Amino acid sequence: AVPAAAPEMPPAAPAEVEKVAATSGTLADVSTESVLQERKVIYDANMNLVVEDTEQTASEIESLAAEVGGYIANMNAYQGGEEAVIYDITMRVPAERFDEVRARLREMAIQVTNEGLNTNDVTDEYYDLDARLRTLRATEEELVALLKETRERGGSVEDIMAIYRQLSEIQAQIESLQGRLNRLEKLVALSTIQIHLQPDILTQPISSRWRPLETLHNSVQTLVRALQGLVNVFIYIIVVVVPVLLVLFIPVALVLLLVRWAVRRRRRTAKAE
Asked: Is it the case that residue 249 has pLDDT exceeding 70?
């Protein structure tokens, strides 16, 4: 419960809140050079591997991920031909074993058709977040102590609520920055390898499948579609083209009839004279 306000106590808490916020900000001025002991780099790689057996290689990749302390984040398999199965795999592995895993993946392949590497140095962002977090946590501790002291000495409700609002804002900022820092730590700790597995064409069996009924079915479908197209064109001509031609022809025909009538009339007049 919030203690009742003591009229004889001066409303000193808001000023103290401002003092805490002002003095704690100086902690951020501490140079980060002393803590920059290691770079924080996010590694991403992509590899296109031609293998003898995609299903067996996919199973071996799963085992490799578990062996090095990583995991398979995503795996999709789809038909790439009559019998071939193609895999797209997303693999997360510890950063310290990133090069080792890539080397072992190359050993699984008959051929590496494409390989790419991307790096993202987040060192500055990481240590900036860390410094801001330490500053905010120091501010949080001071505000908690101030809130306790204000309650113990019977401060006013306004004083207590002013401290509490400031404390809530600081805690919300801490949660947000901590979430971003945790995400960076996870991305730095576990590197990502995108793997595309495709079978070697020379290892695939020659297909001798012949299905004449399927060919007949496809041919009939093609014939039906062609006839449908012809009927659609005929309907279009009857419904659209013919009426348009009639509309254009009628005025022309009337003009020709009038010209013909005028010419005949002139001839009759000339003969009469």
From this structure: yes
